[in-house]
Amino acid sequence: MRVRFGLVRSFVRRHRGWFGLAVGICLGLLVGLLAPSIFPGKPPAEVMEPGTLVVYGGTDDSEGHQRKKLIDHWNEIPGNPTAVYRDIEGNGQYAFMASDAQKSRSDVDIYVLDLIWTADFAANDYILPLDRKTIDTSGFLGQPLKSCEYQGKLWCLPFNSDAGLLYYNSDLVPKGPQTTWQGLKNKTDEVLAAHKEIEAGFTGQFNDYEGLTVNALEMIWAYGGELVNADNEVHLDQGVLAALKELSRGFTSDPRYILPESKTFQENESRDAFRQGKVLFMRNWPVHYRTLKDPDDSGLPPIQFDVKELQHGSALGGQNLAISHHSDQPIAARKLIEFLTSERSQQILFERGGFAATREVVYHDQFIQAEYGYTKTLLSAIKHAHLRPVTPHYERFSEEFRKGVKYAIEHEGDSPSGWEATLQAALRGH
Q1: What residues form DSSP beta bridges with 318?
Q2: Which tens digit of pLDDT belongs to each residue from 280-306?
Q3: What is the value of pTM for the model shown?
Q4: CA nearest 331: which of 134, 190, 136, 147?
Q5: What is the spatial distance between Cα 279 and Cα 257, in angstroms, rounded to a whole number?
Q6: What is the pLDDT of residues 66-92, one digit of tens each?
Q7: Structural domains of the chain ordered from first start
Q8: CA 258/CA 199 separation, integer angstroms
Q9: What is the mean pLDDT of the chain?
């Protein structure tokens, strides 16, 4: 026995390097096999792929370019792959991103998508679905998160949200108006009788772009209508018809109620008309709350105003972050998306950038509530906001809808012949 053990010890001494390596490999394999039982519920750490992450999005118009600063924060964290944010300037974001997605090759990893494009990009396999098992979606507001879903799958995470608010001149309407359309008209009659400098009661966004779609849908909801039902069928119900007639009256038969120039307005133009005291009320996004608090280049003092929720809810706005099907860094892209939508990042976007956060905890921060008086109103508005029709053909649907609304405004609220069938075909891509 001594001889045999001696031979073993001699063998180990002569080959201890290879022997140690073999033992190490065996132990490593054993730990790997036993890891799930030793550390239950802890999957192995995911390794981010090397390379530069490219994010395509619209021009970063947040205060202080906070989107890009969040990218800078990501880049400062040791071990993170470098990320860059590339601006798509102008109004051609959809066309640019869709064209990029259709290429055989692209360097893009993440798209900043308007929420109305989620179904389109998902249905065409332009983006990769997210695995709910690897992503914690608790803490996101319900409606923004819902805008990231299509046909039972999660396709993106909500980057920033939006909900239209009713702005009102608090000097002339100190207690705030009744938010029904009739209530706004009654208050307009009352104030205009004593203040001839006021040109009209209301302004919104009625130029021929998505703003017209949003404003018209909100008017329809205010009258209890629902253009597209839960089965994705178009119906010109009584609420739809009443809303169209009221829009036409406001612009044509009695232009005291809607400022006539609003037909050419987008967000900034309606904000300026409200700031200049031309109107009592304005529908606009919350980002303009802060700009209205500051003096502008005209030298006019900041207008005294406050905000309320729109009656029967706003159209939900916002952008979502999705992984491009071109990406060769899907794990790293997902990690960056999780970073950009984290509680801290969302607080920075809201507090410093003016974008509506997608996580509820931000709205309960005591400093934010004290600093920004519209915080609670905005939170409620987002919770009650409506999703616009969910369809891979939204761009065409919105275009056909705007055509009908413009026709109705000029024809006493009457819709064009065959409009319902046209909208249904557009909704389904026929």
Answers
A1: 161
A2: 999 999 999 988 987 766 666 789 999
A3: 0.88
A4: 134
A5: 9
A6: 999 999 999 999 999 999 999 998 778
A7: 53-162+316-383 (3.40.190.10), 163-315+390-428 (3.40.190.10)
A8: 9
A9: 89
| pLDDT higher than 80, residue 4 | no
In this predicted model, what pLDDT tens digit does every residue of 372-420 receive, in sequence order?
999 999 999 999 999 999 999 999 999 999 999 999 999 999 999 999 9
What is each CA distance from 372 to 50, 66, 376, in whole angstroms?
A: 41, 18, 9
Q: Which of 255, 229, 226 is nearest to 241 (CA)?
A: 226
- What are the two backbone dihedrals, phi and then psi, of residue 109, each rounded to the nearest 5 degrees? -115, -35
Tally of CB atoms within 10 A around 177: 21
Residue 43 has pLDDT above 60, yes or no: no
Contact by Cβ (8 Å): 220, 243? yes
Three-state SS for the chain is CHHHHHHHHHHHHHCHHHHHHHHHHHHHHHHHHHHHHHCCCCCCCCCCCCCCEEEEEECCCCCCCHHHHHHHHHHHCCCCCCEEEEEECCCCHHHHHHHHHCCCCCCCCEEEEEHHHHHHHHHCCCECCECCCCCCCCCECHHHHHCCEECCEECCEEEEEEECEEEEECCCCCCCCCCCHHHHHHHHHHHHHHCCCCCEEEECCCCCCHHHHHHHHHHHHHCCCCCECCCCCECCCHHHHHHHHHHHHHHHHCCCCECHHHHHCCHHHHHHHHHCCCEEEEEECCHHHHHHHCCCCCCCCCCCEEEEECCCCCEEEEEEEEEECCCCCHHHHHHHHHHHCCHHHHHHHHHCCCCECCEHHHHCCHHHHHHCCCHHHHHHHHHCCECCCCCCCHHHHHHHHHHHHHHHHHCCCCCCCCHHHHHHHHHHCC
Q: Tokens 């779609």 identify what position?
A: 213
pLDDT average, residue stretch 335-356: 96
CB atoms under 10 Å from CB of 13, counted, come to 9
Amino acid at 80: N
pLDDT at 226: 96
pLDDT for 44:
61
For CA atoms 68, 74, 78, 79, give the dihedral sign: negative
